[in-house]
Automatic annotation (TrEMBL):
<dbReference type="Pfam" id="PF01370">
    <property type="entry name" value="Epimerase"/>
</dbReference>
<dbReference type="InterPro" id="IPR001509">
    <property type="entry name" value="Epimerase_deHydtase"/>
</dbReference>
<dbReference type="GO" id="GO:0003978">
    <property type="term" value="F:UDP-glucose 4-epimerase activity"/>
</dbReference>
<dbReference type="GO" id="GO:0005996">
    <property type="term" value="P:monosaccharide metabolic process"/>
</dbReference>
<protein>
    <submittedName>
        <fullName>Epimerase/racemase</fullName>
    </submittedName>
</protein>
<dbReference type="GO" id="GO:0005829">
    <property type="term" value="C:cytosol"/>
</dbReference>
<dbReference type="InterPro" id="IPR036291">
    <property type="entry name" value="NAD(P)-bd_dom_sf"/>
</dbReference>
<feature type="domain" description="NAD-dependent epimerase/dehydratase">
    <location>
        <begin position="56"/>
        <end position="273"/>
    </location>
</feature>
Amino acid sequence: MANLVAVQPKQASFSALPSCFSDFNGARLVSSLQYKRKVYQPKGALHVTASSSKKVLIMGGTRFIGVFLSRLLVKEGHQVTLFTRGKAPITQQLPDESDKDYADFKSQILHLKGDRKDYDFVKSALSAEGFDVVYDINGREAEEVEPIIDALPNLEQYIYCSSAGVYLKTDCPPHFEVDAVDPKSRHKGKLDTENLLVARDVNFTSIRPVYIYGPLNYNPVEEWFFHRLKAGRPIPIPNSGIQITQLGHVKDLATAFIQVLGNEKASKEVFNISGEKYVTFDGLAKACAKAGGFPEPEIVHYNPKEFDFGKKKPFPFRDQHFFASVEKAKSLLGWKPEFDLVEGLTDSYNLDFGRGTFRKEADFSTDDIILGKSLVLQS
């Protein structure tokens, strides 16, 4: 029998983490970068709205996206249960979050321990508890989702975290929600899940982020650059460095997840969610430097085909143009990102890497291979 665990309920308090204003906006690179960091000033609190109080299940939710989403859900008065294997702490205190606010939040989170791939357990546990809404943050395959649907025949909404990686590569970016998808994508399981939700006539909403960044990010998107900037090392970037990509702040993503909850306009819809502006690889390196108060970095371009890196990944982004339109979410949901690029990177740096916390130790081994050959060629 599944056990839901909670501590004394209180009213949670949530305020947006502070962030810094910036004159840098996405792909618009200014020529005179200011290296002296600005004073870190807080912005206004997030303003979100949602439907009446719901019994919400989050599949996953202990890392990154779920950490911010669960706080917003609790603030909105929903009963939140995290379904996890229990191998990681169920909650964690956010940087700059007071002990009281964290204790209030923690006391309201319920936990359902289990393996989502144990389909019989999922069916019995979820049937016994009953939930109004499911947020599926870590679902990768359709077969992981079907038992949840079976267990909750009266489910009001299934909100799924998909990926913009499902789109077929195109010569005419950005990607729109109606664009062709790639059946051979490494995110094929997410496509299969979206198709399952359609076939089962579930009231679903699918969110397709591009690259997500922000405090507590376990994918070394910005951390990769911060490690090199802190060490005073050159930034090795593949090919020309003018490849265009797109980043979305985790807090903006969490807000989007809240805005689709109980929203009729989000019924059986797919939304791209990311930042409004696009940025080149070179521009991203400069933006990270500006956010962390570092000098403008030395950038070294290289041809990846000239190297054998084995199983190591020398660069954290796919070496291509990759960005998506967020106009549908803006027009249909009224959603709008709070953070521009440097502003968001500053938020990430000040609340994470700049405090000396990061997910992975620096590994410059592939850099040394690239730079060693580059120096030989230059000499």
